[in-house]
Design brief:
By secondary structure, the chain is an alpha+beta fold. The chain has five helices and eight strands, in the order αββαβαββαβββα. It has a single domain, classed as Mannose-Binding Protein A, Chain A. The radius of gyration is 18 Å and the shape is globular. The structure holds calcium ion (2 copies).
């Protein structure tokens, strides 16, 4: 009976994990198991991609890695991403045209000026609305994609212009077999 209970509880927890865990392709990570090339911060892992891509291509790459283009949910998270950018200073990114920002997961594709995250929330509801000075300005009438400025603050950015970007993978310490086992002790 105990084994049956453990099995049922495991299935239940895994179902909850898949329902509320990372929008990845099924692989769920615990905090001490960073995916390749990713570094942990609070409840997620992050990877800075140095090779510039368009916003759409960056999204695809993050998705293929089991994550998503980073969604900023707090000032702490924004500051962490800014620290990641600081490891790639302007004089290191010699071959990169747009050196001062990274693409992140928000846009105003649906309605001009109404910025939403790629998980469908307003920036307010997502937890971080801090624009860089003079932003968003929809420069040239052509800026529907989101980026984070090196000195801090969000900017709207042309979707077809390639730039470095940061992917995020959510972690949830509940969502591993090991944690399921621990929960039965
Ligand atoms: Ca996030
Ligand atoms: Ca702009």
């Amino acid at each position: 009976m105990l084994i049956l209970r453990i099995l049922l509880l495991s299935v239940l927890i895994l179902q909850i994990c898949y329902a509320y865990g990372s929008p990845s392709q099924g692989k769920i990570y615990s905090k001490n198991e960073a995916p390749h090339g990713y570094i942990p911060f609070e409840n997620s892992f992050y990877k800075y991609h140095r090779v510039p891509q368009t916003w759409a291509k960056a999204r695809q790459i993050c998705d293929a890695e089991g994550g998503y283009l980073a969604i900023i949910n707090s000032e702490d998270e924004a500051n962490f991403l800014i620290q990641m950018m600081a490891k790639y200073p302007v004089d290191v990114l010699t071959d990169v045209r747009h050196k001062n920002n990274v693409l992140v997961g928000f846009h105003d594709y649906f309605e001009e000026g109404e910025f939403v995250t790629i998980d469908g929330k307003s920036l307010e509801n997502s937890g971080y609305v801090y624009w860089a000075p003079g932003q968003p300005n929809n420069y040239g009438g052509n800026e529907q994609c989101g980026s984070l400025w090196r000195k801090g603050g969000l900017t709207d950015f042309p979707c077809a212009t390639s730039s470095p970007f940061i992917c995020e993978i959510s972690s949830d310490t509940l969502c591993t077999i090991r944690d399921v086992e621990n929960s039965n002790q």
